[in-house]
Amino acid sequence: MHLAYPAVLAALLFCVGLYGVLARRNAILVLMSVELMLNAVNLNLVAFDVWLRDTLHSGQALTLFTIAIAAAEIGIGLAIVLMVYRNRGTSDIDKLRDTAETAGEDHDPDDATEAPDGPAQKAEAAA
Amino acid sequence: MITTTSVLAATGPGFLSPSGVEIAFLLVGVVTLGAAVITVTTKQLVHAALWLVVALGGLAVEYLLLTAEFIAWVQVLIYVGSVVVLLLFGLMLTRAPIGRSPDADSGNRPVALAVAVAAGAALVWVVVDAFRHTWIDLEGPVQGSTEVTGRILFQHWVLPFEALSVLLLAALVGAIVLSRKNAAAAEPGTTGGPGSAGEPGRPNPGRRTRTPGRPAKETRSRPAQEAPGRPPTADPSEPPQKEQR
């Protein structure tokens, strides 16, 4: 089999996942897109392992490790999303802007913590 | 481009006359890619999770075609079996709307599309240019059977394997710590009634200390107050949406 088939498929899947991470608004949909990107990497690892005929089969071992780490990541990520939803009432990542810098704000970190509009922004972010 | 493909057809096993495995890989790849695109573009959140099943199952078939049997079944078990179920539970617990939700995509969608198309074009160009003349030899002994994978995993990779089990344990403990209700922050005054949820829109530690019986009661009274299926982003001053958990 031509090596370009799995490599191109992995690249395209990775870019689909990249689009999803950048364009989605719900945090769980972002996690789904991250899963797509991880799977693209797994396909690359398996294809190159089969191509190189590695005696240690490092590609397949790394794929298993990546799958396990992805499972751990999705567990922790969902726990974080659920906690954010419990505290804020939303899982919309566009509204979680507590650490964002607004355009007109002074960028001095000492002033940023003492800024008078800080509580108002927090209330807006919590809404 | 035509000259390069003709040269390829002369040198390699045949670029223009693909083998059966290549045709199968291509067809399953098209299905996988289409399911992935639908996953990241559909407006229905639950459908996105279900299309993700198709994409991940298609990838398992691709692993089978690459003779990596064990990885394929692990993919089916872990991803299709548990990760998608976890995602569906997450969608359920964050009250994702069942129907079409107009705000599934954020405002920077054109920028995201531009970035993804640019990255995709660059990656595909580089990859095709680099691996034009390389061929995977799928003949010979199977490289990814359970026997081979088990032997290499427990002979050469046993130490990372054990370290990975510690990482999984840490992730388990972390998820439990993150998602359990904080009993230390219990306030006797705020657990009294539904109206005592504190100021609206404010993170309230007393909110997380509900007894297990109360959310069920509020779930029943909830459709009367608000249209069902709406995400709780509309009105922050609704107390029940934050008392769910």
TrEMBL record, chain A:
TM region positions: 61-85
Main localization, broad class: membrane
Keyword Transport set for record: yes
Stretch list, region Disordered: 96-127
EC numbers, comma separated: 7.1.1.-
Keywords for this protein: Cell membrane, Membrane, NAD, Quinone, Translocase, Transmembrane, Transmembrane helix, Transport
One of the Pfam families matching this protein, by short name: Oxidored_q2
Catalytic activity: a quinone + NADH + 5 H(+)(in) = a quinol + NAD(+) + 4 H(+)(out)
Ranges of Basic and acidic residues composition bias in the record: 96-106
Keyword field contains Methyltransferase: no
Alphabetical GO biological process terms: ATP synthesis coupled electron transport
Cellular localisation: Cell membrane; Membrane
Its membrane topology: Multi-pass membrane protein
Top EC category: translocase
Entry GO CC: NADH dehydrogenase complex; plasma membrane
Any one GO molecular-function label of the UniProt entry: quinone binding
InterPro entries per the UniProt record, alphabetical: NADH_UbQ_OxRdtase_chain4L/K (IPR001133), NUOK/Mnh_C1-like (IPR039428)
Role this protein plays: NDH-1 shuttles electrons from NADH, via FMN and iron-sulfur (Fe-S) centers, to quinones in the respiratory chain. The immediate electron acceptor for the enzyme in this species is believed to be a menaquinone. Couples the redox reaction to proton translocation (for every two electrons transferred, four hydrogen ions are translocated across the cytoplasmic membrane), and thus conserves the redox energy in a proton gradient.
Family, per entry: Belongs to the complex I subunit 4L family.
Protein name listed in UniProt: NADH-quinone oxidoreductase subunit K
Organism encoding this protein: Streptomyces candidus
Gene that encodes it: nuoK
UniProtKB/TrEMBL annotation, chain B:
InterPro entries, A to Z: NADH_UbQ/plastoQ_OxRdtase_su6, Nuo/plastoQ_OxRdtase_6_NuoJ
Keywords: Cell membrane, Membrane, NAD, Quinone, Transmembrane, Transmembrane helix
GO molecular function per UniProt: NADH dehydrogenase (ubiquinone) activity; quinone binding
Annotated EC: 7.1.1.-
Gene Ontology CC terms: plasma membrane
Record's bilayer topology term: Multi-pass membrane protein
Gene3D superfamilies xrefs: NADH-ubiquinone/plastoquinone oxidoreductase chain 6, subunit NuoJ
Region feature (Disordered): 185-245
Localisation per UniProt entry: Cell membrane
Catalytic activity: a quinone + NADH + 5 H(+)(in) = a quinol + NAD(+) + 4 H(+)(out)
Biased composition (Pro residues): 229-239
EC class: translocase
One Pfam family per UniProt: Oxidored_q3
Transmembrane segments: 23-41, 48-66, 72-91, 111-128, 157-178
Known function: NDH-1 shuttles electrons from NADH, via FMN and iron-sulfur (Fe-S) centers, to quinones in the respiratory chain. Couples the redox reaction to proton translocation (for every two electrons transferred, four hydrogen ions are translocated across the cytoplasmic membrane), and thus conserves the redox energy in a proton gradient.
Family: Belongs to the complex I subunit 6 family.
The protein, known as: NADH-quinone oxidoreductase subunit J
